[in-house]
Amino acid sequence: MKPIELTVFNCEEDEEEAFRTLSQRAGITSIILKVPAKQGCIPFPCSRCISIGHKSRITGSDLLALREAGVKYICTRSIGYDHIDIQAAEKLGITVENVAYPPDGVADYTLMLILMALRSAKSTLKHVEHHDFRLPAVRGKELHCMTVGVVGAGHIGRAVIQRLHAFGCHVLVCDTNDSGGSVPLHELLEKSDIVTLHVPLNTGTRHMIGKKQLAAMKQDAILVNTARGALVDTEELIAALENHRLGGAALDVLEEEEETFYSDCSQKSLSNPFLPRLQKMPNVIITPHTAYYTYHVLYDTVEKTLLNCIEFERKQKHE
Predict the structure, then answer these.
(1) In the chain, where the domains are located
(2) Taking the model in full, what pTM does it have?
(3) Separation CA 150–CA 164 (nearest Å)
(4) Residues marked as catalytic
């Protein structure tokens, strides 16, 4: 039987090592490319199965080029699909799947951001770097005293909830797929001291936190987002922060992050319209979409990508 072949696009060095090691064990031939799956970067012919990362935005024209190169299956090394034109893929007959990696890394990171926000860690660390060792002007808050609203109770949301319960918090949950124990979003926003987002980005959730929702939150509430940047109307978030209608924000994801995150911008001006304004605020923490970035997630994601590819080829053989 001909060996299964997988082309891996936009592969980083540690991902390459994982793919080479695990592909050999799985009996798959992996072709590693450091370029994105874009027109002009697609080898012809290409493997039937390809793997992409969440950093690669795949448009309808990219998908057409991929199909013409022989691609029938795309596995994204992420939970979210929002970087792929799914409707175009369906029309072209290309199967798209994701990888549900373990939730613990993102859940841990979410709790870290919450704790940093409660203890004004950004300001403290900045002052210490400049040898200013005075205590912060504002005393911190303790997490066990907080009501935390978790929006989305998928596997990451549930892992966050588990950790919050361990801290002794009162937890409110808003989840459209949960018939028991879920509260409406407006009630969660009104009652929560901290709101953390864990839903996928799609047409129904884009800007789900906008002007109306921000106005419903407590004046000293903190918004945390480790899911997708466009869940929040960032212009309205900035307005709420500038007008002191919100206590703060901790954001690992940001609207229009693609041209900035994962790049060294130390010697150039920022293209993202929101970053400069947010970074000036002492009550806003920004990190570059790194909550998922652990060794455990890396190897689990690669392993599941390979298994998904094997399963697709098995189904194709029996059809």
Answers:
(1) 4-101+295-318, 104-286
(2) 0.94
(3) 10
(4) 228, 257, 289
Residues 6+ apart with CB under 8 A from 27: 3, 4
Residues in the chain: 319
Question: In the CATH hierarchy, which fold is given to the domain comprising 104-286?
Answer: Rossmann fold (3.40.50)
- Mean pLDDT in order along the chain per 10 residues (319 residues): 87 94 94 91 93 93 96 96 95 96 97 97 94 92 97 96 98 84 95 98 96 98 98 98 97 94 91 94 97 96 97 86
Q: Residues 4-101+295-318: name the CATH superfamily.
A: NAD(P)-binding Rossmann-like Domain (3.40.50.720)
Distance between start and end Cα atoms, the chain: 17
Domains 4-101+295-318 and 104-286 share a fold: yes
Buried b (16+ CB within 10 A) or exposed e, 296-311: ebbbbbbbbbbebbbe
Which region holds residue 263: left if phi is over 0, alpha if psi is between -120 and 50, else beta? beta
